[in-house]
Design brief:
There is one protein chain. It is built from 10 helices and 14 strands. The two termini are about 15 Å apart. The chain has 2 domains: about 150 residues, Rossmann fold (3-Layer(aba) Sandwich); about 110 residues, Hypothetical Protein, Haloacid Dehalogenase-like Hydrolase, Chain: A, domain 2, CATH 3.30.1240.10. The strands form 2 sheets. The chain has an 8-stranded mixed β-sheet, with helices on both faces. By secondary structure, the protein is of the alpha/beta class.
Length: about 270
């Protein structure tokens, strides 16, 4: 059967190491759209960033953000969300403080932290052209209740970052003992936490059910642990050439790296040829 839907991770997959989508990849995406292929961004990023790239690329499709915690439709309307409950947030923050590890968490357009890290803020709000227009908000807090007491606040994902892998593993072990959460990672030095049963794969299943698209008609492309669930939901699973070894081992096909237009290469092989 032909591919009707492609779910694509962003960092390390759709984006090269400069945070850009190459002109070759953009042209390939346009060619696939002309064949009526749904191209769904599926990212761990905050929703506002995912929508920014989707609009910039002219995708006009469903968007999966915060590792599957939020899904928007073609009109950018949120059609599904699964926030972390407030008591769990408090527990997670307490663990982070006790272990003295940097963390932040997201809602739809803002990341919140009890510590300001210049490099992380630049990641979201760089003055460079490649990130111009995203304008992700940042809120620094002392007490997490300052955030949780706000009306209609939804928190979808935590990100913990530390280059000390022993420390990171200890934190992961503690977080794993908290009920009602799902843990993954998008890089060697981080931990990502969402609500239990929230994954990119479950979100992809939700979208494909809405569209009446069978698993055999889906291709997923990713590079890290938080992509495993969506690779498992696809008829064709593609690992980037720069993906972790474990991702390559479970994938049906290993494409070129994110700096070698690996996404475009996979599209040409399975959709455009």
């Amino acid at each position: 059967m032909s591919i009707k839907l492609v779910a694509i991770d962003m960092d390390g997959t759709l984006l090269n190491d400069h945070g850009e989508v190459s002109s070759t990849t953009i042209e390939t995406l346009k060619a696939a759209q002309k064949k009526n292929v749904e191209i769904v961004i599926s990212t761990g990023r905050v929703l506002k960033s995912a929508l920014y790239f989707g609009e910039k690329l002219g995708l006009k499709s469903y968007t999966i953000a915060s590792n599957g915690s939020i899904i928007t439709d073609r009109d950018l309307k949120i059609i599904y969300n699964s926030p972390i409950d407030k008591q769990t947030i408090k527990t997670v923050v307490e663990v982070a403080k006790e272990e003295n590890i940097y963390f932040h968490f997201y809602n739809e357009n803002t990341y919140f932290s009890n510590k300001y890290i210049k490099e992380i803020d630049k990641y979201y709000n760089s003055s460079k052209e490649r990130l111009k227009g995203q304008n992700i908000n940042f809120v620094l807090f002392d007490d997490v209740d300052e955030i949780l007491n706000q009306k209609d606040i939804n928190i979808y994902k935590f990100l913990f970052i530390d280059d000390d892998l022993d420390k990171l593993n200890k934190v992961r072990e503690r977080l794993g003992k908290i009920g009602g959460v799902n843990l993954s990672k998008s890089g060697i030095n981080n931990i990502e936490l969402t609500r239990k049963n929230v994954t990119k794969g479950e979100a992809l299943q939700y979208v494909s059910n809405l569209l009446g698209i069978d698993k055999s008609e889906i291709m997923s492309i990713g590079d890290n642990d938080n992509d495993i669930s969506m690779l498992e939901k696809a008829g064709i699973s593609v690992a980037m050439g720069n993906a972790e070894r474990t991702i390559k081992e479970i994938a049906d096909f290993v494409t070129k790296t994110n700096n070698e237009d690996g996404v475009a290469y996979a599209f040409r092989k399975f959709i455009l040829e």
